[in-house]
Design a protein that fits this description.
The protein is α+β, with helices and mostly antiparallel strands. It is built from three helices and six strands, in the order E-E-H-E-E-E-H-H-E.
Length: 123
């Protein structure tokens, strides 16, 4: 009997969408994926941003939804980035510092490509 190898991709995608909620399709654009295992230190920061829009369903969430999409306008992303920078400046681990700065770079990159930055969880 052959065993199947399963590679779980549980975590969050970070994408950019235009004003009409269409994902960017330019050749320079790429979406990012962050594994859930790497997120335990920064999840409280994401959860501290509220309310959060879910523009696809035209609702406001009171909390960051780890199971669905969370739409951020640039002004909210900038707040998120500031909180992440504060966290990065106060960690002892070089690995965590580098990870947080990678997330910041992903968010900044997506702001260049879309009107909204969408962080969607697949838990």
């Amino acid at each position: 009997m052959m065993k199947m190898r399963i590679y779980p991709r549980v975590g969050f995608t970070i994408t950019a969408e235009d004003i009409d909620l269409k994902e960017n399709t330019s050749t320079d654009y790429q979406k990012y994926f962050i594994y859930l295992d790497d997120c335990h230190e920064i999840m409280p920061i994401f959860k501290s941003i509220q309310p959060i829009s879910n523009l696809r369903y035209n609702i406001k969430e009171q909390d960051f939804d780890a199971c669905c999409r969370n739409d951020f306008e640039h002004s909210t992303v900038l707040i998120l980035i500031e909180k992440l920078k504060e966290k990065a400046d106060n960690v002892d681990s070089k690995k965590l510092y580098n990870f947080i700065n990678l997330v910041i770079a992903c968010l900044e990159q997506q702001m260049k490509f879309g009107h909204y930055v969408v962080i969607a969880g697949n838990l």
